[in-house]
Write a structure and sequence with these properties.
By secondary structure, the protein is an all-beta fold. It is 0% helix and 50% strand. It is built from no helices and 10 strands. A 5-stranded antiparallel beta sheet has the order 1-3-8-7-6, with no helix packed on it. A hairpin with a 6-residue loop joins strand 4 and strand 5. The chain starts with a strand and ends with a strand.
Length: 109
């Protein structure tokens, strides 16, 4: 049974940083791509970052990385802005219809 547990969200001031974690279970984590999505109030869920099964990290505006020994995917977010306020979810290519409970990120002064 697939299980994804996100954590690390919170309240941060503009320009601040957060690192989100997602611990996966119920499938062979190292074999599947992972991704982070977010959903802001009144908006549709959108892709933030993705990483394949063979990559260790991918840098963009945010950096996604994975630790296959810990069955965990991370999202390092720097220079956060109010428009980054959302619930952040991780997702596995093993089961695209499954979503965890998410973790709230609020960027506000």
């Amino acid at each position: 049974q697939v299980h994804l547990v996100e954590s690390g969200g919170g309240l941060v001031k503009p320009g601040g940083s957060l690192t989100l974690s997602c611990v996966a279970s119920g499938f062979t984590f190292r074999n599947y791509g992972m991704s982070w999505y977010r959903q802001a109030p009144g908006k549709e869920r959108e892709l933030v970052a993705r990483i394949s099964s063979v990559e260790e990290s991918v840098k963009g505006r945010f950096t996604i990385s994975r630790d296959n020994a810990k069955n965990t995917v991370y999202l390092q977010m720097n220079n956060l802005q109010p428009e980054d306020t959302a619930v952040y979810y991780c997702r596995t290519n093993y089961r695209l219809d499954y979503w965890g409970q998410g973790t709230q990120v609020t960027v506000s002064s």
